[in-house]
Amino acid sequence: MPTPPRQSPSPAQRRPQPSRHGARPVAPVRRKRPRWAMRAVTTLSVVVLASAGIGHAVVTSLDAKIARVDPFKDMKNRPQAGTGMNVLLVGTDGRDRISDEARRRYRLGGAPCHCTDTIMIVHISEDRERASVVSLPRDSYAEVPAGEGREAHPIKINAAYAEGGPNLTVRTVEHMTHVKIDHYLEVDFTSFMKTVDVVGGVQICTSEPMKDSYTGLDLPAGTHRLMGGEALQFVRARHIDSGSDLGRMQRQQRFMAGLIERATSSGILLNPMRFRDVTRAVLGSVRADKGFGTGELLDLGRAMRNFSPSSSEFTTVPIRQMAYAVKGIGSTVKWDSEKADRLFKALREDQPLAPHRTRNKVVRVEVAPQEIHVQVENGTKTEGLAKRVDEALAATGFRTTGRPLPATDRTEPRTVVAHDPRWDRSAKSLAAALPGSVLRPVKGLGPTLKVIVGEDFRQVRKVRSEDPTQGESYVVRGDEAGCS
Q1: How far is Cα 484 from Cα 473, in angstroms, rounded to an integer?
Q2: What is the C-alpha separation between 407 and 62, in angstroms, rounded?
Q3: Alpha-carbon span 164 to 65, nearest angstrom
Q4: Could you tell me if 221 and 206 are in contact, meaning their C-beta atoms sit under 8 angstroms apart?
Q5: Are 466 and 366 in contact (CB under 8 A)?
Q6: What's the alpha-carbon Rg for the chain, to the nearest Å?
Q7: By the 8 A CB rule, do 126 and 350 touch?
Q8: Model confidence over 360-400: pLDDT tens digits?
Q9: What pLDDT was estimated at residue 74?
Q10: Are the CB atoms for 247 and 32 separated by under 8 Å?
Q11: How do beta strands 217-219 and 373-378 pair?
Q12: Tell me, what DSSP letter sits at residue 473?
């Protein structure tokens, strides 16, 4: 294999020397939960192990607990190394290691699939001041590269693990992204639940009730502190919204942000005893490549002492088509190759994923404005108000009729979004653009939503879809976790 251009020193080559007292910074790493639970475990562990000041002997003992795999064996023609560190985080099922009582309580019945429910690339910047996490949907259309008597062939990306284990998973991800993977980490359900429990739970906020018959999740609207089992239900839920896996990934990203906030604000990282408890809970069911050892952990520990929620950013690879049919494989998720290339180029060049985004100026919504049809009516006696609202909504991207009408009742105190119950997701997205507006279900209204402008109207707020099939992928920063 040809020698690649000059590379940056490895984390092990830069690892710090012991202090006078023989102590060294520590940075154990925990891997993620299946689906998004795995992400949570992974980033939490990086933060926890990276920010605590534990002695070398402790780190070495933790290192010894990690099961080892060799995902890079005999790999050739790999992408050129970039700047920083790229870790492939893989979440597997592992429900066979959970007690029967817990499996019943949290709806984890059935045989384990021994598959990858979550696949993520975590990029740790060269200066160790930023972690960028990119989710790869498990049903992504992928192409397995030829090699070892195997012909190139199409596949769902999560099927690479079943076909060729960690080695083929790494090969496929590198082939699809052109990002060189430096380390491999694999975790399961058990690590996730234990980690959430040992940090004292994670606070999440929901703007509406969340109920999922598949996982048993049942949360009223409001703020909740989720412990391990309920947290696993939250990140696994697939039937809360029609976005399925995409909606779940977005909830997982918010949960991860909350987990990082909990780890960095609760004193866990500064308390050696609590730190030890977290790492023991996490490391029992992790698998990692042979090169990810004590030296790397110590290096991360020294470099990431100031890591905080704002240091992390999360996104999903941009998607062009959700139901891309492939003969012999079924329905897959097709990436937007042009936008995905820009995203992975940022990882290779150690750049933030959204360096120019202004915070809090645009509200995230579930359905893109371009997909929502709107008829505006004036529910006040202020002439021309409906026309102003129609134009403002159109400027924000909504598909208005351009022909505002007077409402039957011209004394509406509140702005109303009337909608057919079948289009409730669109109605919520439209209401987000009209602060203070109320939803009014009207059976039989059809796909066109109706805005009845009330006396309380003040402005139309810009909104943007979180759906990665709409425009550039949306990046969520760790300190932006809010109601979902």
Answers
A1: 18
A2: 68
A3: 25
A4: yes
A5: yes
A6: 24
A7: yes
A8: 467 878 888 988 999 999 999 999 999 999 999 999 889 99
A9: 87
A10: no
A11: unpaired
A12: P
